Amino acid sequence: MAPPQDGKAAEVKEESVPQRPISDVVFIIAMKKEASPLVEKFQLTEESNSLFPKGVPWVRYSGKYKDLNINIVSPGKDIVLGVDSVGTVSASLITYASIQALQPDLIINAGTAGGFKAKGACIGDVYLASDVAFHDRRIPIPIGKLSTGDSLDMCPHDETAIIANDATVKDMEGAAVAYVADLLRTPAIFLKAVTDIVDGDRPTTEEFLENLAAVTAALDQAATRVVDFINGKNPLEL
Ligand code: FMC
Hints:
The chain is 30% helix and 22% strand. By secondary structure, it is of the alpha/beta class. The model is unreliable at 1-11 (pLDDT under 50).
């Protein structure tokens, strides 16, 4: 799990972890385009009897894959704007609500991210983040390899904070999911596929949209490998 303050993403506190194989996994996925390939891969079905408060746009898919009960939870479309509710606010809320309702053994935050070529990231690479941190809170924080903020672009102030975080990838949800997972003592891992090169020459939005479909296929494959790997293991074996 990964508190944003001291940030080891895979760290699991021994006393709070059951000594049995992982059985319930919740994926937190921000965008429908990112979630759909995995919903198909694991043959999940959309749950209409929502565990969540009435009227929220949050979407939950569930089903069984190998020995695992898998849920994919997404924030759904913003009620006013009609776009995917990306970012830290929705990510925190659905992580909190999912942990409360489903008591998972493991949270997996899977999604796309910008990558830094200065750190060796290329389009389509998938990172299993070792650390996470926020970059736009203007609070001095130690090293984080995945840096999270509520903007797709990068202003000079954020750039300084992200470089201070020593980030290889930059997203809009990871550290928020880490914060809630840590709060509720639930192990979490972070799987991020690179759609755009943050320190490259191309406009982020253009590159992001161009690569989204192909890169989510890479994310889908990596997520399946992670799920196959965790199947039958207990959290301390990860
Ligand atoms: N910066 C921040 N976030 C992203 C990014 C970048 N260069 N590329 N891809 C993303 C992710 C975010 O986590 C959002 O869920 C979505 O894709 C962009 O709105």
